[in-house]
Amino acid sequence: MKISFIKPCNYPKTAASICLLSAVIFCFSCISGEDNSPSGKVEANLRELSLDENRLSESNTRFATNLFQQLASNGDSKNIFFSPYSVHQALAMAMNGNDGEVLEEFIQVLQMEGMNLEEANQAVKDLTSFLLDVDPKVKLSIANGIWYKEDYQVRIPFKDAARQYFNAEIAPFNVYDPNSVDIINHWIEKQTNNLIKDMLDFIPEDAVMYLVNAIYFKGDWTYNFPKENTRKEKFTLRNGQEIMTDMMNLGEPAGFKAYGTADYTYLEIPYSSEQYSMGVLVNESGNLSQLYPHFTLENLDEWRSNSRDVNLILKMPKFKIEYRIDNLADDLQAMGLVRPFIFHQDNFTQLFSNPTNYLKISRVIHQALIEVDEKGTEAAAATIVEVVEKTSLPPNSTPTIFTLDRPFIFFIQEKHSGAILFMGKLENPLES
User: Fold this and answer.
1) Minimal CB count within 10 Å: which of 230, 291, 382, 424?
2) What is the pLDDT of residues 333-347, one digit of tens each?
3) Is 412 within 8 Å of 278 (Cβ atoms)?
4) φ and ψ at 79, to 5 degrees?
């Protein structure tokens, strides 16, 4: 093994694992003769991505980081978990009901500049197909559904685009029938393997359409954590308070990808054939607000491209996060998607062929769940875009032990495309 020191690390002992990882991973190259490959490894179904697929993956990642920054901007110490891919797909479906300046707002917020509507739709279809097929050992499903008000006539081009590019199920609903809520909720529950339940609380009488995306992921770690190694250990919160939580322990060194500076550490924890991984970003202080400015597409590309192969004994907490956003409207407006949330004659002009009053998006509901244990990760999310009509109603060489024992940002990503499916931050593993 060849080891070359670049810069010593002077962090305090309380951050020994992060400091040591920075010293071992980021300041040296580690070469191990030990075979850490999992048994029965399956080869990934890789292919060359088209120019538009690469552009869409970059768009998705930019949107993901922008939305994360927006959601985390209030600076609280609560856990966050969501699927930027799900939100992106639901809004991309809604985008097809617009043209002109409103369409441009969707394109800009979804980071699709330089692509026309057909190119963007085709890239969505192709990238989704790639993500579903790339790893045979990872369970991934991405589904879209559209429900529209009975007696309204959805424009044929919109229907065709929804079916052709988003593989969407399209059906009418009775806005006055209480069972309509159950129809949508049962569809979401089925598509998310029963993880997301009772998501839609009610259907207002002015609702004319629901555009829904659901995504489900289940992947086993490339290197499972033995259950017998899990022990109660300390986890330090942002405010310095120490709590005891179930800490998983790999027990033996395994191969990871990592990158680091004096300010933060980036680690990839692989699933299955290593096409999918959980990316982790952590710093010594545990104050994640110090990491937000570093979390950009450009930096993420740098971390992925220049990460080192290292051997680590990884320790990380078991955790479960259930997260719901009742309405993303304010966040999306802050990001630049403004007019679709205001009744305006230019909104959704390509949605219905029958005359309607002014339309707008009233709610973008998002709900997500993740559970991380010794075997792997199970995650699901759904996004509901509610469109309403204007009425009178209100609307290392020596094995290094690296312990994730302080708050961290995490995200589930696919290596070849760079697409981010889920994203969050763990502030307290005892809070779901």
Assistant:
1) 230
2) 999 999 999 999 999
3) yes
4) -65, 145
Distance separating alpha carbons of residues 266 and 284, to the nearest angstrom:
12
Report how far residue 242's alpha carbon sits from residue 305's, in angstroms, rounded to the nearest whole number.
35
CB 11 within 8 A of CB 282: no
Instruction: Give the separation between CA 282 and CA 291, rounded to whole angstroms.
Output: 8
Task: Tell me the pTM.
Answer: 0.88
136-154 residue pLDDT tens:
999 999 999 999 999 999 9
> Which residues contact residue 398 at a Cβ distance below 8 angstroms, ignoring those fewer than 6 apart?
none
Nearest to 125 by CA among 45, 211, 50, 218: 50
pLDDT at 22: 58
What does the DSSP assignment read for 196-225?
S-S------TTEEEEEEEEEEEEEEBSSPP
Enclosing H/E stretch for 258 = strand 254-260
Going from the C-alpha of 400 to that of each of 1, 30, 313, 396, the distances in angstroms are 15, 11, 6, 6
CATH 1.10.357.20 fits 48-432, yes or no: no
